[in-house]
Structure formats: C-alpha cells, structure tokens
C-alpha cells in the first residue's frame, strides 16, 4: 500500500514564499502589511518565523474571544459532528436559539441571519424599502464618514468618497449628512425618505461615538416622520462597549432614554468570533406596522444564513461572554484603558491629539504628521506609520483613516496584557517627539 506522505513543512523563509503566492495569485484589493501569521492563542499571535505579537486589533473587532479559544473549537467540533448545514427550507435548533438570544438582548422583534456585515446592512435596506414601498418612499439617509460595507449597496450607503470611486453608477436612494447633527438630518429629509442608518460608533471613520442627544433626537425625528431608525452595530456591537449594542452604553442612565429602541440593528464581526456570520434584528412593531413581518416568505434569503454550525459557535460565544462576565470586564477595563490612553494625550500632546471611544473600541487621533518630528520625513499617513512602528515593537493595532489608529482587542484580554500594550504604545509615541 502506498503511504500518503504529507507535504514538507514550509520552513525556508516562509513569509517570503507566502507573500509571493499572494503577489501571483490573490487579487490585490487590500493594502497588506508585511506580516505572515501562523497561529494564535488568546490575544497573542505568532508569525511564521515564530515571533510573538500582542493582538490589540482582534481581527478588526472579530475575534471576540481571542485566537484558538478552546470553547469555540469545541462548539465547532461538536456541531460539525451532528449537522453542519441544512437549507433555510427547514428548521433547526441553533438558529432558533440564537435568534432568541439576540432578541433577549435587544427587545421584542425578530432576527434574520446572513454571513457578513455588508449583507446584514443590505437586509436593512431591503426592509426599509419594503416598509416604504406603497407610499413611494425609498431613500435612506446615512452619515458622512460612515462605513457600511463593500457591496454595491454598501458603498452606496457609505459616506466616504474613496470607497465609491470607479464603481459608479451607485445604487440610487442614499444621501449622506454630517454625523452627530440632528438639525442637519432634519433639513436633509425629503418626501421620499424612509429610514436613517448610522453607526453607534463610527469605526472606519476614526472611532467617533454618537452622542446621547443625537440618538434621542434621531428617534424623535423618526417618530415624527414615520421613518425607520437603523443602527449598524457591525463593529461597535457585541459587547465591545461593555453593553450588547453601543447605543445601550451611550444611553445608559441618560434621562429620557429609558424606552429608546432602534427599529433595526445590523450585526456581524464579533458575533461569530471569526466564524463568518451576520444578522439583523428588526423591531416587532413600530409606526402601527408589524415591522418584523414586513419581509415575508420569499422576499429575502441567503443560502448560508444561520447554518447550524455558525449559530452553534455564536451561541457558545454568548455563553462564554455571559458566564465569564465579559461585559462588566469590558466596562471596567475599558474605563481604565481610556484613562491610560488619556494619560498619553497629557504626556505627548505634540503627538497625540485626542482619544475617543468606549470599552474595547477606542481610537487614538494623532496630531498632523508635519508637526511630529518622527513622522514628518515620510509621505505615508501618520496612522500607517505609527501602526508600522507598533508592528516592529510586537503590537497589532488597526489604522482608522489617515490620522487615527484603533484598539479593538478581544473581549477577554486581561488588564495585564493591555498594560503591556499601553506601555509599548507609550514608548513608541514618546520616541516620535
Ligand atoms: C466591517 C463593517 C461592515 C462590513 O462588514 P463585512 O463583514 O466586511 O461585510 C459594515 N459596517 C461596519 C460598521 C463595519 O465596521
């Protein structure tokens, strides 16, 4: 019998070999860093040469329980032994249970499952159009500097010119309005407007939280004008602020916010902890309409939406977050993190302009590059230069536009690990003065 010999492991400058494969065979639509990863554990990740990095980017807010979490592995193995996929022509327990779990965190309503954030938002656009269809309303207003994904609908909804360029004509029916400005939103409404979509915290736009007044003002506007208030919680959701959704953190204890409900919420990223799953929640009733019933049989679907495997993983992540009290951990450690980052603003005011965010979604805005001795010599954006320096120092963070970089660590990262990261970030920022 012929033995099957496994291929020899790539050891000889594996990083260069892998990068060559990418250069030859992968569509170059991403600006990638010169890092090639092999494996991870918790908030640590190792490159193919065996160098360890502290991951404060969390796969861009995806790895909610860090890398190679044993309970995610267990959920994957257990469920894949039972049932990986049945089509949405049938019922199965994990999808029903996951929908129930999400509803419990958001309020009366229903959930649709899909595979990504762009697709979750896409479902909300279709919901809004169906809701307004008989009155001829279809227009969705979004914020300048927003980000809603890379499909044609997503780039049409996104309030940033750079994602649209070269892909025109865009999907009609989207307009963009300054963020955190209720009057601007009110002034922008037209008879065709049916919904407002915003991020609770703008992520790609540089970590800019919505204010409580803005959220309450938009709710009032939507109630007055029979509009849907839709929230994109793809990046800022899933306990990243210490509450399930960012609006719950922003509005906690705010007078007049007690009964606040959005009409739809998009989710993805951290929901599956790295397993691709997205979802949107839609409120049960609003404006005298059973909103959760608007997308009836045959109106919307996706082959892989809410598979047993994806839902089992997402359910296990909810279990771990709740069992281990990670929301409270994110709140207290996030407050500590904000104080530490605030200290860097005080210490290096010529390098750091401002720190924004909550919990484990925080952004550091740098001063203009020309005024920072350590960055002025290069044409590269300040954010990219600092992120590169941090890579050299063994820390992964995520650029956010040209001026900011973000920390989106795993929800279970320890305070000691964060402290290690902050110390290095402080050293790098200090070295630029
Ligand atoms: C990442 C992101 C999306 C898009 O999610 P994909 O899974 O990449 O499609 C949409 N909205 C926000 C706020 C995001 O951060």
Structure description:
The protein has 2 domains: 15-62 and 325-431, Aspartate Aminotransferase, domain 1 (Alpha-Beta Complex); 72-323, 3-Layer(aba) Sandwich (Aspartate Aminotransferase, domain 2), CATH 3.40.640. Helix content is 38%, strand content 18%. The chain has 15 helices and 17 strands. It has helices at residues 14-25, 58-61, 70-82, 93-106, 117-132, 152-157, 161-164, 182-188, 212-225, 246-250, 308-323, 326-347, 373-376, 382-392, 415-431, and strands at residues 37-41, 44-47, 52-55, 109-114, 139-143, 174-177, 193-199, 201-202, 208-209, 228-232, 264-267, 278-283, 352-358, 361-366, 395-396, 398-400, 404-407. A hairpin with a 5-residue loop joins strand 8 (201-202) and strand 9 (208-209). Helix 3 runs antiparallel to helix 11. It is globular and about 60 Å long. It starts with 13 loop residues before the first helix and ends with a helix. The structure holds pyridoxal-5'-phosphate. Pyridoxal-5'-phosphate (PLP) is lined by residues 116-118, 121, 147-149, 199, 203-204, 232, 234-235, 268-269. Pyridoxal-5'-phosphate binds at residues 116-118, 121, 147-149, 199, 203-204, 232, 234-235, 268-269.
